[in-house]
Amino acid sequence: MPTIRSIHAESEPVIQVSLVQGPIDPGPVAPPRSHAGGGTCTFVGTTRPERHPDHGELLGLEYDAAEPLTSDRLADLARDIADRHQLRLLSIEHARGSVPVGSASVHIVAIADHRDAAFTACREAIDRLKQEIPIWKRERWQDGTTWSTATSPLPESNSEKTT
Fold first, then answer.
1. Does residue 21 contact residue 30 with C-beta atoms inside 8 Å?
2. pLDDT tier at 149 (50, 70, 90 boundaries)?
3. How far apart are CA 150 and CA 122, in angstroms?
4. What is d(CA 22, CA 137) in angstroms, rounded to the nearest whole number?
5. Mind listing the pLDDT tens digit for each residue in 55-82?
6. Considering the chain, what percentage of its residues have pLDDT values greater than 70?
7. Which of 97, 91, 104, 92 is CA-nearest to residue 21?
8. What is the reported pTM?
9. Distances (CA, A) of 24 to 13, 55, 92, 93, 98
10. What is the C-alpha to C-alpha distance for residues 26 and 43, in angstroms, rounded to an integer?
11. Which of 26, 29, 121, 139 could bridge to 85 as Cys pair (CB 3.0-4.6 Å)?
């Protein structure tokens, strides 16, 4: 069952974030008629074929997330990006679990009045998601597994920090 957050007030952008078990079906996101904009940018991240020198061909990726922290942070990130770029809609969907080669693991849609804001917001969303959101990626190869070096650790909580 996917974790879905949809945040919307009449004068604010529509924010949709979800974590979905398995690969994502990157079908179109239909904005509410009142939120249709002049520019829509879509990003779909797929598992690409690779060959590891020690482990052979890539079979797929496995994603894990720290719920509900991941959904909360994803909603905050989406809200921040939507506000800064004056979006009408920002939808971010990310896979959990196994995603085979050729399948989608992330789907982002940004809708704005103008294309430049939609493009910029979509790029910022994927870049920040990879840097800031606690989602971990394990690569499954023909002969073993490895953890992606791009995986971000959980930041320390305020109670764990020392001065």
1. no
2. low
3. 19
4. 13
5. 999 999 999 999 999 999 999 999 999 9
6. 79
7. 97
8. 0.83
9. 23, 26, 11, 8, 11
10. 9
11. 121
